[in-house]
Amino acid sequence: xxxxxxxxxxxxxxxxxxxxxxxxxxxxxxxxxxxxxxxxxxxxxxxxxxxxxxxxxxxxxxxxxxxxxxxxxxxxxxxxxxxxxxxxxxxxxxxxxxxxxxxxxxxxxxxxxxxxxxxxxxxxxxxxxxxxxxxxxxxxxxxxxxxxxxxxxxxxxxxxxxxxxxxxxxxxxxxxxxxxxxxxxxxxxxxxxxxxxxxxxxxxxxxxxxxxxxxxxxxxxxxxxxxxxxxxxxxxxxxxxxxxxxxxxxxxxxxxxxxxxxxxxxxxxxxxxxxxxxxxxxxxxxxxxxxxxxxxxxxxxxxxxxxxxxxxxxxxxxxxxxxxxxxxxxxx
Length: 332
Ligand code: UDP
What we know:
Layout: E1 3-7, H1 12-23, E2 27-32, E3 47-49, H2 55-65, E4 69-72, H3 79-84, H4 86-107, E5 111-117, H5 140-159, E6 162-168, E7 170-172, H6 190-198, E8 205-208, E9 220-221, E10 223-225, H7 226-241, E11 247-251, E12 257-258, H8 259-270, E13 276-279, E14 288-289, H9 294-299, H10 309-320
Helix pairs in contact: 1-7, 2-4, 4-5, 6-8, 6-10, 8-10
Bound molecules: uridine-5'-diphosphate.
């Protein structure tokens, strides 16, 4: 079967992508250093443990599997941490991606689907963000992803590397069959933190800022179901296989929800209350990030049909109740 190399395949989005790739007839080969991923999440194809910065290991894996394309998820992705430790983000995300792209090109693999982020847009006066909106990231994480996008353009011009860049908005939810799901240690993302607070695994959710210029004072984000998101990657691979060339797509729904609205939806789905406290703003957070996703709908025929708050939280709750990959919430 046709192999696709999935960097970060042991992580949250990568593991769901492996499931979707397998269902679409590919063999997903996971390449992951397990710094934030879980070997237990690698369920749908071979596992090659390795680091993006390890060129010799990458060469070996390309030689062994000869993938037709790479889907590149592996990255550090915490906004707050990126502000405190920017060097870690530039080394792992930017230098790591450069090492990967050079290994790909030397192996003759010239198609890549890359996980970028709406954090590359930055703060833009409450507008809906389109692919052609200026990229003015306000945190080191967003700047590291913008740099990788630039690098892809340069390798495209010099070596014919074809890339589909997806700028993700906020990914939530889990595999409805709960084979894989979101499991970070420590957890920093809103939906799993809300579910842990509901479940008594942590005392309370801290709401990061309630004085933003939004209707209820909390930040607004555009949440997309992880299964919808990974489906777009299959469409992206098809796009490249059909020779349609490099392209950039936002992946979001066009609807924004505040932190308090997500909390209310979780209360409705679970029938329980969310214990919370209002805290200070988190460094690097934008007030509002909402996607203009017409391009993905029009050109890729992408339909994010599972991306309602109720569906995302119901699927995340089902996964949460399995206990995830197994340790305590505050370990890690
Ligand atoms: N958030 C929050 N409390 C938390 C974690 C997140 O209030 O403990 C807020 C955060 O400020 C942002 C939204 O929830 O407005 C989504 O944050 P998350 O870290 O899930 O994703 P990000 O937007 O950073 O990619």
